């Protein structure tokens, strides 16, 4: 991507991540061949999504809200943005798919239980 600089941007501070995450970032960098900042930012976004239901923050105005990041990644076509997000976000996507499947099974069970309950209640209600 032409970033307006005549030189390469400085390396992204991947060492600032916990070592376990930094190691995975380096693995993804080797596999995807995308810019380090793109991959690290994808990890930040995915970690933020994973934590939103676990951590709340209190803003200076007193409002409490889930921890979150608003991230915009700009890159040229072919810079491996989608490939990176698919790899890094796969656990989130898999969890979402499993949750939807479980929800669909739960709805079927609920409807069956509700119908059985209504059938049992009919003689009692007269």
From TrEMBL:
Protein name in the entry: DUF3987 domain-containing protein
Naturally occurring in which organism (per UniProt): Ralstonia solanacearum
Organism superkingdom: Bacteria
